[in-house]
Amino acid sequence: MSTGQVHFEVFARRHQNGSLALEMATEDRARALAYAEEMLEGGSCAVRVSKEILDEATGEYSSLTILAKGTAGPPKSKGDFEETGPPCVAPADLYTVHARQRIVRLLEGWLGRNKVIPFELLHRPDLAEKLEASGTDLQHAVQKIAIPEAQAKGLSVHEVIRTFNSLIDRAIERLIKDGRKGSLANFKTEPFAVACARLLEEPEAAYRLGGGVASYLADAKSWADKIDRLLDLADGAPTDPRARALAFEVLEQPLGEILGSKAGVAELLGPDLDLGGSLAALTRLAAGASVEMLSKIDPTMVRVMPPLEGAAKRLSHWMEGSHFQAVRMAIGKRVIAEIKTSRRLRPSDANAEIDILRALAMALTAAAGKMLSAEDIREAFIERSSMLISSEFVTAAVTNTTNATEEVRALIRLAENVTGKANKSQAAQWLIGAVTAVRFEKEMRNGAEPPMTRLGVLADLQRAVMRVDLPEADRQILAKRFGDIGGVVEADSNIVNSVTRSALSPVQTLTHLLKLALGETAPLGPASAKAKEAALKLGKSPDIRADLAKAPELVERLRPLMMAS
Questions:
Q1: I need a labelling partner for 386 at 20 to 30 A (CA). Which of 136, 287, 424, 530 fits?
Q2: At how many degrees (to 10) do helices 325-339 and 275-286 cross?
Q3: Percentages helix, strand, coil for the chain, rounded to the nearest 5?
Q4: CA max distance for the chain
Q5: What is the C-alpha to C-alpha distance for residues 38 and 41, in angstroms, rounded to an integer?
Q6: d(Cα 137, Cα 540) in Å, to the nearest integer?
Q7: CA–CA gap between residue 55 and residue 5 (Å, rounded)
Q8: Which pLDDT tens digit goes with each residue over 521-546?
Q9: Rounded to 5 degrees, what angle do the CA atoms 404, 408, 413 make?
Q10: What's the pTM?
Q11: What is the helix (H) or strand (E) element at residue 214, kind and residue range?
């Protein structure tokens, strides 16, 4: 069977009371199945993937469902069929955002082969003629949309096909006619700014100006080149507020469509980026000023946020201004949508994934209001955090640790970077499991490092846990466990007595005891309590009073212990 005679359609029901609607049509089976899974993870109630096979004799498709997941839809009633007309009834309706999004899904293959976007197709007569001449591509697109439309509206498929064919014929005829009449803008004969001012009072100003923009993009060799050309036009936009508003209203449409396509983003930002890198680059593109500010505070930002070059860097400067607000918000929604899925950002490195997720959270929060609401951002990272504390991710995060101490440090770092009450609680349970394990206690008691070093590690871990925003009861369990193990390590080696009986001067001995007692070189618990008792005893000794008079800073450290005793 020749290419194009089989394709796959993805339908999704986004709301429980809604109906299945066509979301994508592609010739790639794997991509269709993957997109359906993404729709489910993104919140859709149900998805269906069908294999559509063209019967060359009749010109009609037979359908075979290859995937169906999700909850059943509500039963249909007569009320479901009240509006029987198709969503688009006039050529102008094809220029709406919703219609252009459908065109992307229905004509994905044709648009990709010709390296154009719906905006160009709708504003260039030559492309409209080319699509019309292709026959099969256009026929496939009409049939893809007609079948679900007929089911949703309670009409016959043939009736819907006739309606759409009539609409398409009128739209193509209108575009070709306007092109021949010279009704569309032409920047070869008049500058962009002049065209904006001239068309300002026209009833179809955006359509006519869009024709000039599409023509200006026609011989661009790449997506980056198209963006550069759009920015060239932005540089030459009129200064008059009304004409300038028209200019950017039109320019925003093709810019948003390019940035909404995987091919456009991959070419603009770099094809070798993984999902995390792509989201980081998109965030830098739309919130460059926030990223630059944070980079001066946190060096990690510089390391994980890919630099922008060429057209991407130029576009990021435009994004910092008041224009392209819709594009900026669309990028933000795209980033947030990906964060809310369970797809790994850095599949091969869990710790690097935590780094990039933290950087994204900081950048998006700093840019809140310009791209997204703070609440949307918070909810997205709570959803992502539920993936971080899953057994699969936790296993990946600790898989390269070489001992129990490294595993505990990795889990503390994980706990620091999850958000949401339930997720924090689950992170704490992972930590409690690791710290109460026999393996951890054995390594602390029998490790190759000197006992004082091991006490210092326990103290460091105890302080780290107390800094993490975990449920208070869980933090106390962890802190007590570190303290109890510290007490055992001290008792095994009799460290406090060894310090007290050492050949050090009284002041030096007291200094070491205070560090143990205050939780600096031993965890707070039995070991620190024993050191506190020894420090107080030594501090009251007549032999050290003269030396203490010469060390007021030591007295200041000792005073709280004496007052508490």
A1: 287
A2: 150
A3: 65, 5, 25
A4: 110
A5: 5
A6: 94
A7: 8
A8: 999 999 999 999 998 888 777 777 76
A9: 150
A10: 0.74
A11: helix 205-217
Q: Is the pLDDT of residue 23 over 90?
A: no
Structural tokens at position 308 = 């922008």
Six token digits for residue 116 = 């154009």
Helices (H), 58-183: 97-106, 108-114, 118-123, 125-134, 136-153, 157-181
Nearest 5°: phi and psi at 367?
-95, 10
Cα separations in angstroms, 29 against 37, 51, 61, 259: 13, 8, 17, 24
Beta-bridged to residue 49, according to DSSP, are 10, 67
Q: How many CB atoms lie within 10 A of CB 134?
A: 17
Amino acid at 109: G
Instruction: Look at the block and give the residue holding tokens 């205070």.
Output: 514
Per DSSP, the three-state class of 425 is helix
CA distance 30 to 23: 15
Task: Map tokens 């004969």 to a residue.
Answer: 189
Is the separation of the CB atoms in 234 and 247 below 8 Å? Answer: yes
For residues 391-423, b (16+ Cβ closer than 10 Å) or e, as one string? eebbebbbeeeeebbebbbbbbbbbbbbbbeeb
* pLDDT at res. 74: 53
Place of tokens 């993984």: 274
Please count the other Cβ atoms lying within 10 Å of the Cβ belonging to residue 323: 20
- In contact, 410 and 393? CB cutoff 8 Å: no
Q: Distances from the Cα of 13 to the Cαs of 39, 42, 123, 216, 283, in angstroms?
A: 9, 12, 32, 39, 29
Could you give the CA distance from residue 237 to residue 218 in angstroms, rounded to a whole number?
20
How many CB atoms are located within 10 Å of the residue 110 CB? Answer: 21
Six-digit token string for 546: 């003269």
Q: What's the rounded Cα separation, in Å, for the pair 44 and 65?
A: 18
490: which 2 tokens? Answer: 């001290």
pLDDT at residue 194 in the model: 96
Q: Characterise 25 by phi-psi region: left (phi > 0), alpha (psi -120 to 50), beta (else).
A: beta
Instruction: Please count the residues of the chain.
Output: 565
Residue labelled with tokens 């990021």: 316
**Residue 206 bridge partners (DSSP):** none
Q: Which residue has the higher pLDDT, 86 or 472?
A: 472
Q: Which region holds residue 65: left if phi is over 0, alpha if psi is between -120 and 50, else beta?
A: beta
User: Amino acid letter at 114?
Assistant: N
Beta-bridge partners for 11? 22, 48
- Euclidean distance between CA atoms 290 and 91, whole angstroms: 42
The pLDDT score that the predictor gives to residue 85 is 41
Residues 140, 137: Cα–Cα separation, whole Å: 5
